[in-house]
Write a structure and sequence with these properties.
By secondary structure, the chain is an all-alpha fold. It has eight helices and no strands. Helix 1 packs across helix 6. The radius of gyration is 36 Å and the shape is elongated.
Amino acid sequence: LVDVVGVVSGVEKESLTVAFVAGELRDELEKLGYNLESQITKFEFEQIILEPRIVKIVEQVGVDVAILCDMLDLLFEDLEKKQEVGMSFNSFVDSILSMRGSNPATVKDVKEQLRIIKLMIQESNSTAVKRIIKEFEEFKLEIQELREDFKDEQDMTTRRVQSTLPASSEEAMTMEEA
């Protein structure tokens, strides 16, 4: 019975927190002139969470605004894959509440973290491979230029040597007689 009361109390506390945050954010966004029926874009999200009154509301529920800003790319990554422009107000509130420091990590969180790390590694590898290929191409061109320069140098040296040598044996004898 004590456990049941504890669970019910926790659920009610969470409901009150969600209602408080949603209500406060709704009021502030309306004051700032945002239409809560339209989608919130990544740019708008960033602008909203940098508003001092919004920062105060968000920090009251234990969200670190700096970390929230750092996580913007990840928050909008899935939306971009679905080719959606932004998120609804409810998704906005859920995103903020999911970033509370007091939230315990779940298996879903760990799986999401692994997915993100895997994507980052793939992107890093892809970038590295592209860079290496580009540098090898540049190196290949430099080697070709050096070969051409070396061949030109050899040709010039050969012409110089040939120009200093007598053209025939008659010329050689004429030179000896003189």
